[in-house]
Amino acid sequence: MEDIVCGAIGLASEGFFEGVADGSIAVHRDRTITRLLGGHGGPAAELSDGSTLRADLVLCATGFTQGVPFLPAETRRQLLDERGNFTLYRQILSLGVPGLYFNGYNSSFFSPLNAEMAALWIAADLAEAVALPGPEAMRRAVVEQLAFMDGATDTHHCRDTKIIPFSMHNVDEVLADLDLNIGATVRASHWLGAVDPAAYRRMTPSLLRRLPPSGPRPGPGSTGRAPVDSFSGSEEVPSDLR
């Protein structure tokens, strides 16, 4: 499975490779568009090698390189390692930038489920209901996770926040941190067959029942963060976690 699906799956339209082979499709490898031109010569695209291509239509295919260009350069430097991997604990929490969480950015085989469980983890952490290890232990876990992904995919996993093909592994880790995981039998069925999202429907109410009505009380080593309003102890599921 890991040899086939490593989060770097190529997608091509029917006939694409045949078109490249017979010359009807021209491929300009390792080039980017630097400028779009108009004028009397008609629309054109200037490439990074200085060449110009006539272009009646430009299709911008986004998403091949995942990044965070909207964040300051110093923040990006603290987010990424020397190989461009995001250094995120549980693929959620930034190690270098306090208070910065990622959710929905770490795409998976079943992104809605991963995002829902990550949202629960984030809300619980903000409410100080997650027993996080120390900074060095979290960093060690991130390094070990990246090494695991390197070994499982022969170093071909995406250098982004994607967790394919370890989507189920991520759900299990996140829920284990909250001590809320579903039963072993159902988990095994999810590893071997189709995933049933309904099996996780009681996760949020279960967490809410554990919190005092007034929110969590700061304990030893508390960061002093204010409780999250949505964790009021009510049985109602917060709208942003539904």
Architecture blueprint of SSEs:
Blueprint: H1 16-22, E1 33-37, E2 44-47, E3 52-54, H2 73-79, E4 88-89, E5 93-94, H3 111-126, H4 135-152, H5 167-177, H6 184-192, H7 203-210
Antiparallel strand pairs: 1-2, 2-3, 4-5
Helix pairs in contact: 3-5
Question: Which labels suit this protein?
Answer:
three-stranded antiparallel β-sheet; 7 helices; disordered C terminus; about 240 residues; elongated; single chain; mainly alpha
State the gist of this model.
This protein has helices at 16-22, 73-79, 111-126, 135-152, 167-177, 184-192, 203-210; strands spanning 33-37, 44-47, 52-54, 88-89, 93-94.
What does this protein structure show overall?
The chain is mostly helical and 242 residues long. Helices cover 31% and strands 7% of the residues. The chain has helices at 16-22, 73-79, 111-126, 135-152, 167-177, 184-192, 203-210, and strands spanning 33-37, 44-47, 52-54, 88-89, 93-94. The protein has a 3-stranded antiparallel beta sheet with strand order 1-2-3, with no helix packed on it.
